[in-house]
Amino acid sequence: MGVLLVTLLGFAVLDALDVLLVAITTAVVADSRLSRRSPLVGVLSFIGGVFAVSFAFGLCTVLGIDFLVRLLDFELTPTLRYWGELLIGVVLIAVAALPVGTSMNTGGRWVRPVRERPWLMGVVGFTLGLAKVPTSVPYLAALALLSAQRPLPLGWPLIVAAYCAVALVLPLVVLALALRRTPRTRRVYRVLVRGLTRYGPPVVRVLFVVFGVALVVDALVHGGQLW
């Protein structure tokens, strides 16, 4: 159980390095400052929308896999487990080779329609989540590992909720820094946003490779179970 939680935490941290979420958060913060209002409602609504979709998708995925397993009387053998690790590892390494966007320009169209009704940013977050979550390789890998546990861990929905919360830590950190107006906080805010913009995508690539290689090596170490 401890190994599973550490692995899921690693995938959540990897999932948290999402430049797009930080970009939209900073856009809402910037627009709020121009309008002389707090960014709290807009950013929290946006993050809440993404969290709702992520959590619902995770619950449905685990429940769906568990239902199929029970229906088909499927047994997860060591052979299937290590083949699964090998497949996930290869996919992570392959995804690391794909181009990753680094643009922070989200455009004013994200903010202007909700300037007078910041809570509508929740709709933006929900819509973005619908496109983001099903294509998030770390999240899908984490859900696959969780679903493979027999029986499912006690309180597994809380594990899914914790994963989704960790994956949204960076926008919350950006919001917390934006709410404080001290010179030091402003410097940290600028350094964090610029650092994520510049180094976020390369770090994601490296972590994809690290996690992928770790899974592949573990599968090969237990190569006798693959056949």
The percent range for helix content is: over 70%
Q: SS-based structural class?
A: mainly alpha
Number of helices: 9
Low-pLDDT segments, ≥5 res? 101-108
What overall geometry do the principal axes of the alpha carbons give?
globular
Strand content: under 5%
**Strand count:** 0
**Major β-sheet profile:** none
Which structural traits does this protein have?
227 residues, mainly alpha
Overall description:
By secondary structure, this protein is mainly α. Helix content is 74%, strand content 0%. It has 9 helices and no strands. It has helices at 2-16, 19-34, 40-72, 78-96, 121-132, 137-147, 156-166, 169-179, 183-221. Helix 2 (19-34) packs antiparallel against helix 3 (40-72), helix 3 packs parallel to helix 5 (121-132) and helix 3 packs antiparallel against helix 7. It is globular and about 65 Å long.
Question: What can be said about this structure in brief?
Answer:
The protein is an all-alpha fold and about 230 residues long.
What's the structural blueprint in terms of helices and strands?
Layout: H1 2-16, H2 19-34, H3 40-72, H4 78-96, H5 121-132, H6 137-147, H7 156-166, H8 169-179, H9 183-221
Helix pairs in contact: 1-6, 1-7, 1-9, 2-3, 2-8, 2-9, 3-5, 3-6, 3-7, 3-8, 4-9
